Amino acid sequence: MLGADTDVALDGRLLGKADDEAGARERLEALSGRTHEVLGGVAIVRSDAEWREVVGTLVRFRELSAVEIDVYVASGEWRDRAGAYAVQGLGAALVAGVEGDLSNVIGLPIPTVCRMIASLQERKE
Fold first, then answer.
1. Residue 47 has what pLDDT?
2. Which of 54, 57, 61, 117 has its C-alpha lying 20 to 30 A from 99's C-alpha?
């Protein structure tokens, strides 16, 4: 079984998902012009063992104007997204740069999962 989840950390605080437009706006304003860390947790469970790992990726946002934030919030893409944005969608326009695994920011750190599965296979043999 494979499980994964993502959160966004800024100044040592997890931002989580916004409940409403005001919460989305608050998160985007906080991230504007700053670098934050996207934390992706992955667990693989087999009947005889369990593997867990957390992957961190740094994301730098552009300075966002109030209008840009309003337009993004109005798009609704922030819903059910850690940090209130989706880098694989319209949220890509908010990002100035990514340091590390982009797939982690999208929601599943593929290289890490592949390495974990390979390790699982080696231990099975």
1. 87
2. 117
